[in-house]
Design brief:
2 helices, Thiol Ester Dehydrase, Chain A, 34% strand, homotetramer, 17% helix
Chain lengths: 146, 146, 146, 146
């Protein structure tokens, strides 16, 4: 990987270990591109639940995914263990942009870099609402450059 | 496949076409064993929704999966189209046993045979309840041997 | 959806029908964001196999996914049938950029819009190679604006 | 769970921790029944790779799944961590039957009990062959009752 703009392990304030699963591998013998997004999804929601007290069944507001993206730099394979680094690159009134770096085993350079935009909406009306305070408090420590 | 006891295409009263997806294939170049169960799950729930009016968000009773199983006879591959045949082999007061045959493209013999047991429970108490009448009416025409 | 820049159904030269599956739905009762990428992956590879004669086991060159992205406009749900529209927005020497529009049932406006970049590499060296002629012939008719 | 015949945590000689993922949860807010099989698949193959030296790309023999099954006793949910206990209940010449117990967090009683039958076949002919010695050595210590 020779993309100088990509962050390295030390740029992420929070990590979650995600072991790969057998069926993550596709016919080419590496983790299928789709599955990377389940790592992003898991890293983001795990933090919202553990640090932010997200209650997906009862909270009146929840995060809708507005946009995601991924740049793939190198392979991941079962049985690798992935360290998913999480940081926040933009924290708005109703929306948050996360960046997720996937680090294979002990590597310092990411195998992939994900982008994930959540917009907080009211469960009933599905209209944007301010990010709930308990969630905001969980996101602020992850702001890049802070 | 030389298991004389396995049903053939003509033994199933109801079918649903399920196209395989790229990531259904695993590293061995065929559909991963786990994915067969998503075909079973889809065939059963599609029938309950379309013929039985199942409303997964509002019904007071829903089907909990108590037991599943599968015998694998031959490979499935992307981009096959699977005909999932569905029949009911036991219809009890609170529970139903489905059998699902997966037929690859135009084959008359199943590539796999699934077994799927639903127990109907109350959404709040999670205690068994009688199968709701609208569901029962959707299952009776699928009873094997009728 | 009020993004004027997003293409509509008529902008796509090729379609593939993808029925949703029960487990595509997540806890919020709609198709999980990750699963949209399996629709993209399936639409792209299905075309490469059917129209381009891609042989994923024996071809000396294959497409590695370099980058993907998705903008989400509205919900998809089981048991929807998704029409995945496919077009090519950039066809280079070694790489191709696809755009995939996901249309729910009879809708003319996309529920989501995907971007998918394939780089063709040699199976052994994993170095970029020219897109194989059989693949190129399958992609040219999908070029947007032609 | 009141099935006296089901094994408990202490009956399994080998464990693997499998964290659940966000998208493992289905619309009912618990891990979808299909996903349990990906835990079985992962536990079995992880052991074959780590302890048995399975090389899924180059070994001349590999394990084909002939039959699987699962009894579901209680819910699993994201973000649970599952301890997948693995043992061998039958070790034949060409085939092996595994039993997998899924234990939620610190529970001693399984949330589900899986059965998984592998038949070893030649990669080319797909005919049954003796279980390779390196694999057999990895399975013998897992034999139940030894």
């Amino acid at each position: 990987m020779n993309d100088k703009s990509a962050p390295v392990r030390g740029d992420f304030p929070h990590f979650m270990a995600i072991p790969t699963r057998w069926m993550d591998n596709d016919v080419y013998g590496h983790v299928n591109n789709v599955t990377y997004y389940s790592y992003f999804d898991t890293a983001v929601n795990h933090h919202l639940i553990e640090a932010g007290g997200l209650d997906m069944h009862n909270d009146t507001a929840f995060g809708v995914v507005a946009e995601t993206g991924c740049r793939f730099f190198s392979e991941l394979k079962f049985p690798d263990i992935i360290d998913a680094g999480l940081r926040v690159t933009r924290l708005g009134a109703s929306s948050v942009t996360y960046e997720i770096g996937l680090f294979r085993n002990d590597s310092d350079e990411p195998a992939a870099l994900g982008r994930f935009v959540h917009v907080w909406v009211d469960r009933e009306t599905r209209r944007p609402v301010p990010i709930p305070p308990k969630i905001k408090r969980a996101l602020e420590p992850l702001l890049a450059g802070t």
